[in-house]
Amino acid sequence: MSPIDVDLPTEALETAAEMSAALRAGEVSAVQLLERALARAERWQDANAFSQLWAEAALEEARKVDLTPSGSRAPLAGIPSAAKEVYDVAGRETSGCCAAYRGAVARTDAPTIARVRHAGLVMVGKTNMHEISAGSTNLVSACGPTRNPWDLERMTGGSSGGSGAAVAAGIVPWALGSDTGGSVRIPAAMCGGFALKPTTGRLSIRGMLPHSPSLDCPGPMAMTARDTWMLYRAMAGADPLRPLEPAPPGEVRIAVPGDGFHREHAREDVLGVVDRTASVFRDAGASVERVDGRGIEDARRTWSRVAYPELAEAHPSLLGRDDVDPSILALLEYGRALDPEVRTAAIRRRDEIAEWYRARLDVFDALLVATTVGPATRADEYLVEVGPGKSVPEDFVGPGWLSCAVNLSGLPAVNLPAGSSSEGLPVGVTLIGRDDGEEHLLRLAASWERATSYRPVRPGRRREKGAVG
């Protein structure tokens, strides 16, 4: 399966940066880009990336852009975009892909949506997600499971899986997601893209259906570092056209945690991608060192004891309902019933885990780790391969096993589409940075792009197995 195109002046317009430049130069119209997005959405229906598609309204927005003189347009006017079903969009339903919340129509835009609209983005629709963000597979959804464009028999990861699939398939160049335990980084890793979890609290969570408010974080998903930067800036209400310069590798110190949480359970081919990515930075001139990775082996358990009580408090009306998936009800009940002393201890432990990260980042500019333990698994697989001849149940080492620890710290993190698995499926690595270090992380991502001569790879144009760039 390959994307379908309408008649555009060039086939090069695959990134938001390219689209923006072509729109400003009058080389393409907003309607042309929107029609191509809708054609691709039609072709990729089997991926089930969208929970809502607003074709007519989006076309009307695009026509308005084309009627506006280029000198009077918003900086990102005319670029097709999408947002996870978790965001309030005025006049549209916010269900969180939960049947119990169907019919809940937002009166106003979430602040983040208002900002990207102000920047000129044309919203194509809302994307599918794991029900109320309470899972990392995107197989549980009242809108049906999402499917990975690289292999429709496999999951996308979640909970922002619809956004990951829409971007990977080239329907839109970027999309908004949210991240509570890895929910933008996981589908980016499994679908072959970039995703940024900003510093917790850096972007407003108002107007977003909550999962765990102390952990929830809006985040951009795209296919290049520059596009990720542009969308992040738009979400923050800042100038999205401000340049992103690659970080000079010779001035960077990167740590790769050794044995411990960030390597436990990860497949050998995934760890190989981490190590090859470290070599890319080292060869480019960065100082890359292996550091002790032990000391936070209880991160996943701690995350669960912080997140699920907040989930139960955020959604008390869902307990006991028959229109909520049983797996979601089990998490809600677990959170509601958790002993208060256990919860208090988990909150204390959260602070200790955060300090574990910050102590290493006092010395290094970034930590380099695997995003997930493996590539996207088949949707019907219960056992996940984590090593030669070793498999564990999906609900034990799920897609969010490694990524959730960063949310406990509140630090920013970015997924890089750094390589492929032994099956030729996308594999991601994560760079974790200091508080408010989003720009530096994306500059590092841009330096990785330069060192590897990276260009986005979409389904149908796969890179060779094991490739780094």
Question: Would you spell out the secondary-structure blueprint of this structure?
Answer:
Blueprint: H1 16-24, H2 30-43, E1 50-53, H3 55-67, E2 80-84, H4 111-118, E3 122-127, H5 161-168, E4 174-178, H6 185-191, E5 194-197, E6 218-222, H7 225-235, E7 253-260, H8 268-283, E8 287-293, H9 299-314, H10 326-337, H11 340-361, E9 366-370, E10 383-387, E11 390-393, H12 404-409, E12 413-420, E13 426-432, H13 438-452
Parallel strand pairs: 2-3, 2-4, 7-8, 7-9
Antiparallel strand pairs: 1-3, 4-6, 5-6, 5-12, 9-13, 10-11, 12-13
Helix pairs in contact: 2-3, 5-6, 7-13, 9-10, 9-11
Structure description:
The chain has 469 residues and is of the alpha/beta class. It has 2 domains: 16-235, Alpha-Beta Complex (Amidase signature (AS) enzymes); 253-444, Amidase signature (AS) enzymes. It has 13 helices and 13 strands. The chain has helices at 16-24, 30-43, 55-67, 111-118, 161-168, 185-191, 225-235, 268-283, 299-314, 326-337, 340-361, 404-409, 438-452, and strands at 50-53, 80-84, 122-127, 174-178, 194-197, 218-222, 253-260, 287-293, 366-370, 383-387, 390-393, 413-420, 426-432. Strands 1-3-2-4-6-5-12-13-9-7-8 form an 11-stranded mixed beta sheet, with helices on both faces. Strands 10-11 form a two-stranded antiparallel ribbon. Strand 2, helix 4 and strand 3 form a beta-alpha-beta unit. The two termini are 23 Å apart. Residues 1-6 and 461-469 have low confidence and may be disordered.
